Amino acid sequence: MSSACGKIFWLWLLLAKSLPSSGATYSSEVRPILEKHCVQCHRPGEVGPFALDTFEAARKHAKQIALAASTRFMPPWKPAPPSVAFHRERRLTLAEIATLQAWSVAGAPLGTGALVEAKAAAPTPVADRSWTMAQPFEVPAESQDLYRCFVIPSGLAQPAWIHGYEFVPGNRKVVHHALVFFDLSGAARKLDAEDPGPGYSCFGTPGFLPVASLGGWSPGNGPLTMPPGTAVRAPKGADVVIQIHYHATGKPETDQSKINVFFAANAPERRLLDIALTSNRIDIPAGQAKYQVHDYFEVPVDVTLWQMIPHAHFVARRVRASITPPGGRKRTVLWIPDWDFNWQDIYQLKVPLKLKAGTLLEMEIDYDNSAANPRNPNQPPQRVVWGPGTADEMAGMHWNVTVDHEARDLEDLTSSLWGKMIRATQVTNRRR
HSE on the CB side for 139, CA within 13 Å? Predict the structure, then answer.
């Protein structure tokens, strides 16, 4: 028996033992599961290909629901053991999978009680301020790697501290992902004025040096909250610049996205820092199935790890982040054995990790540039090098930390990070 077949056999055996003794019904057992895990995306206007917010819709797709749940194809959650526990995990329990399977086998019965529509588990909070694209943007029927930046005056008369945000795509069919920056230089406005139509072309980078970054959005993400005691400073008079990556649907579309922000009452107690492990040493021959890049950083001071943000493109297959404490054993904290460019996320730890000075942070990303990789954008495979295009490749693992003793240690960490960046730049220049 193959490894894959063996895993499926044992999963089905566990499910069989977990099946409810009485038939599951939509009203009692299934609707709460759909509300918790599915309806956030599977409802009108959202990214899901069909709605699951009514009994009739769910019954129509009962077999698909059971199959997608039992194979863990849905809901999309890529981290696997031995990853640590994260907030907002979209992972069904074996009991939940068994309930959906039993419901499907029983013919998807309604059960007793009033016929109530399923609601999304996370209602949208009321924002303190919204920044919306000034005009709709027309997305052509056919396009590739369409990156567009939109400049929105923040209208902030005073600096503001943002402790949460929600990016709201205007058209989820075409918005692949988004990043949000702040600009004080006026460079984004100039680029916007020089480019006809709403926004300006900004493939890869936004075309200026941001004074701050709010973060990003990808499908499956709802409102995001910063780690406790931290916030992002939005400068007085800054422009908000939203960089959106669009993908075409085969027919003309329009989009007018926005971002909702939630302000903190006071200045943050601590600063959230980004330790970026990256590599541009990517040059993968066509057909090569095993190719790995690696980066590391030894933290010079005591820090607390709050969240991790990995990034790669279609040829990437496996992503690992690990830590090795001083004198201790290496431990995996994030393991994605089936990387999917379409389901990138910000992974916030349920229990923040205290990392002692001398802890080694490591990133490993494996690539498969063979025809056997179902997500390879080139068939037949072609040489893939580092670059911002989706047919290129990238490698990144961002570790967001706070310094445990800022007054004493903040300068040491920032100096070490600058040193790492300068050394990486010097290596890149020598290779050129």
Answer: 26
| H or E stretch covering 431 | helix 406-431
* Of residues 195, 181, 121, 129, the one with CA closest to residue 160: 129
- Cis geometry, peptide bond prior to residue 310 (ω within 30 degrees of 0): no
**pLDDT of the chain along its 432 residues, tens only?**
444 444 444 444 444 444 443 578 998 899 999 988 888 788 887 777 888 888 899 999 999 999 999 988 888 889 999 999 998 888 888 999 999 999 999 999 998 865 566 666 555 678 999 999 999 999 999 887 799 999 999 999 999 999 999 999 999 888 888 999 999 999 999 999 999 989 999 977 899 989 988 888 876 677 888 898 899 999 999 999 999 989 888 999 999 999 999 999 888 988 888 899 999 999 999 999 999 999 999 999 999 999 999 999 999 999 999 999 999 999 999 999 999 987 888 899 999 999 999 999 999 999 999 999 999 989 999 999 998 777 899 999 999 999 999 999 999 999 998 888 777 765 555 555
Contact between residue 333 and residue 321 where contact means Cβ atoms under 8 Å apart: yes
C-alpha span between 320 and 307 (Å, rounded): 14
Q: Which residues contact 30 (CB under 8 A, 6 or more apart)?
A: 24, 58, 99, 100, 103
For residue 14, what is the DSSP state? H
Contact 318, 341 (CB under 8 A): no
Sequential DSSP letters for 122-151:
SPPPPPSEEEE-SS-EEEPSS-SSEEEEEE
Output DSSP code: residue 66: H
Q: At what angle do helices 62-70 and 3-18 cross, to 10 degrees?
A: 120
The residue to which tokens 């009994």 are assigned: 55
Distance in angstroms (rounded) separating the CA atoms of residues 223 and 83: 23
Quick count: other Cβ atoms within 10 Å of Cβ 215? 20
Closest CA to 167 of 184, 183, 152: 152
Distance CA 308, CA 60 (A): 38
The pTM for the full model equals: 0.81
8 A C-beta contact, residue 234 and residue 212: yes
